[in-house]
Design a protein that fits this description.
The chain is of the alpha/beta class. The chain is 41% helix and 16% strand. The strands form 4 sheets. Strands 3-2-1-4-5-6-11 form a 7-stranded parallel β-sheet, sandwiched between helices. Strands 7-10 form a two-stranded parallel sheet. The chain has a two-stranded parallel ribbon with strand order 8-13. The longest helix has 22 residues. The site of uridine-diphosphate-N-acetylglucosamine (UD1) has 23 residues, from helix 6 and strand 8.
Length: 315
Amino acid sequence: MPRYLVTGAAGFIGRSIASALLARGETVRGVDSFINSKRSNLVGLEAMEFIEGDLADPATCAQVCSGVEIIFHEAALGSVPRSLADPVTTNLNCVNTTLNLLVAARAAGVRRVIYAGSSSAYGDTPTLPKHEELLPNPISPYAVAKLAGEHYVRSFARVYGMETVVLRYFNVFGPYQNPSSPYSAVLAVFCRKMLAGEQPTIFGDGEHSRDFTYVDNVVHANLLAAAAPAEKVSGRMMNIATGSRITLNQAFEVARELTGYSGKPAYAPARAGDVRAAQADIRLAGELIGYKPVVDFREGLCRTVEWYRTVPAGA
Ligand code: UD1
C-alpha cells in the first residue's frame, strides 16, 4: 500500500511533489482526472501507482484514500478568469472535490491532509506583505472556492481531529506548467511565447505585482509540512512563497533576457477580478515547519525557460 497520495498528480505541482517523494524512495499513489492536466506529465513517474479518476465521485475518493497515511491535495481547477467564465465548474472542482476527499480520508483513517491553498484568498487587502492574520477578502469565484476548501480542511482538524495543514501558495511556476491554455499562468505564457518569438501581452500597466514562487519551494514546503509534529502544524494555515514582489514589467524583462526575445510586450486592459499586488510574509512557515525558499525568482525562471526549450511548442 502506498504511504502517500498526491491528488492532481498529473498537474505541474502534483507531479513535482510525487517526483520528489519517489526520489526519496517513498511509495506514492497519484490520482488525476486530466480535466486540467496532461498524461505526458506522468512520464518519469512510472514508480507511482496511478489511478485515473475524478474526486467529484465519492467512490473514487474512497478508492484513492484506501491504505494511505498522508495526502497532498493539489487537485483543483486553477485560473481566476476561468472561474469568472464558469464559477459552477470551478466550485465543483475545488470545493466539492475537497469535501469528498476529506470525508473519504476520514473514513479511511488517513492521518494527515496537506491542502494547496491560494494567495488569492487575501484579495485586494492593501496590507503588504500579506500575513496569515489578515481577514480573507476573496474577489474571484476561484478565490472563494479555494478559501472554502481551506475552511473545510481546517474544520476537519477541529471537529474530527484529523491532522490538516493548509499551505497558501503564491503564484507558483516551473517546469510542466501548461503554457498553452487560455487560462495558463502568466510566466508559462511568457516563456512559451517568447521562445517562439511571439509577443506576450501584459494586462494592465505592468505594475501589477506577484510573489512568483518557483515550484521547488512549494515541494520543499510540502515535505516539511508532512514531517512536522502535529502539535505544531495541525489545523494551521501558512503562506508559502519567496517573500518578494516582482512586477509584470520586471518579470517580462527577466524572461526577455533568459529567452533571448528581442521585442516589447503588448499592453491590454487589466483583467476583471485581478489582484493588484501580492507579496507574502513567510515568517510563520519558517516558525512552524522551518520553511525558507530554496530557489529564488531568477534562478527559478532560468530553470523554467530551459525546461520549456526542451519541450515541443504547445506541449
Ligand atoms: C491567481 C492567484 C494564485 C493562484 C492562481 C491560480 C492571486 C494574487 N493569485 O493567480 O495564487 O494560484 O490564480 O490560477 O490572486 N497576466 C498578463 N498576461 C498574461 C497572463 C496574465 O499580464 O498573458 C497577468 C494577470 O492579469 C495577472 C498576473 O499576470 O495580473 C498573474 O496572472 P495569472 O498567472 O493568471 O495568476 P493570478 O491570477 O495572479
